[in-house]
Amino acid sequence: MLEKVLDQKQIKVEKLPYLLALPPGHNKTSSSSYPLVLFLHGRGERGSDLEKVRTQGLPKAMEGWRESPFIMVAPQCPEDSYWPFLLESLLSLLDDVCERYAVDQQRIYLTGLSMGGYGSWFLSLKAPDRFAAVAPICGVGIPTLADALKDTAVWAFHGEKDTVVPVEHTKTMVSAINKAGGHAKLTIYPEADHDSWTVTYENPEFFSWMLKQKKM
């Protein structure tokens, strides 16, 4: 059962390498703090070469930006693992980044694609209180645990013609959250196959929505 993944006791928390982008003027010693976006890549970017993480998703989209309005952290999953098995490692990384940088802990956001979509659902289900908003793209969650996200801002994305991860997984998860009393949003791209992330991360409305979310 997928639910058992959330209850796994890790013997060792892995230290994950990551890409980092800081907003202009970031200063840990100042009174200012900044939103943080944790991005989880897909299966194809696993390994030990961080440059692979730049080739897809949010890091790729941000290469064309003049500046970033948030701190972006993009860890890399080891070649022989998957994000749902590294939840404690991801939370440890998040703690470390919040300690090192000027993070507004009421505005921490989580997003990821494909395997990272799985990771976004699983990590937010494990630690819903850590995130002001979650945006999984073409991933799989655990509908029976969806009530954990009823008070979290959620916007999920998927391609209707996805031949890798069936769109029904996202539809079912969003429906379960809303049946539990949540207000999850869902965007289905009618003509998209598995790559439903490029158009998402190129959409200014997505980032505008995300940056408005704040934990109460």
From TrEMBL:
Domain Dienelactone hydrolase: 99-194
Keyword Signal: yes
Keyword Hydrolase annotated: yes
GO molecular function, one term: hydrolase activity
Keyword annotations: Hydrolase, Signal
InterPro entries, per database record: AB_hydrolase_fold, Dienelactn_hydro, Plant_Biomass_Hydrol_Est
Name of protein: Dienelactone hydrolase family protein
